[in-house]
Amino acid sequence: MLRTQIENKKIKIFYPMKKIVPGVKEDLEKILNNYSVEIVPIKAMTLQQMRMIYALINQFSEYLAGGGSEYGYMKDILKIFFAEKYEIPNFSLSPDSIDTLDIDTANRFIEYLIELGLDYNVPIVIKEKNGRKRFAAQIYPDTEKYVYICLKKRICAICNKSEADLHHYDNVNSIGGYSQCNGLKTRFMSLCREHHNLFHSTPISEFEEKYQIQGIWLNPQNVYDLLEIYPNHFKLFRKEYKEGKYGNLERSE
Fold it and tell me: Nearest-CA neighbor of 67 among 58, 77, 75, 76?
């Protein structure tokens, strides 16, 4: 729906759309040429995004503050933290508000809440009306980024338990065994012992269908950043790095 705002004798019309269509601003201004009009096309966040954000905030409220009357306080605090981190003004979580988040920023807020939850051991489990549970792996907007975050935090990409193992998603024998593994020839993810064993006892297609997740490919910078986290892995990479194959890499944040 269109939303308008009158400010300094000017009518602003906010036109939410999933995709900004070239020329839409000009066409609408011609229709309303009897007014001083400024068209502000925005990709407003969806109701689905709004519900997910509220559900995640509820997880923080229940786990860190006992829920109930603390929900509003927790919502305000998390919004402030996010706005300060990304240097954006205060915002509404209603898709119908002029100061709502756009689709991309709403996705970033969802990512932020999940990452913060992983840092503070907040269980990221969304219970749907049909009784189905959705975990962080099914919620995080960018699955590959999520898997890498779990690798760096050394937590299970499925259940988020700590002290997870580095899991070769592809059969390491296909590259000649562990001695030939430099981290660049197979995909990886971090799994707890329970889900590591489950992976090996379940057809891979069934595993991927159930958890909506796959291992990821690493680049040299990724592997370099994981060396201290997994000291017993990537031995070939360590050797090749000393030989100067990957140049001078520096640890990223």
Answer: 58
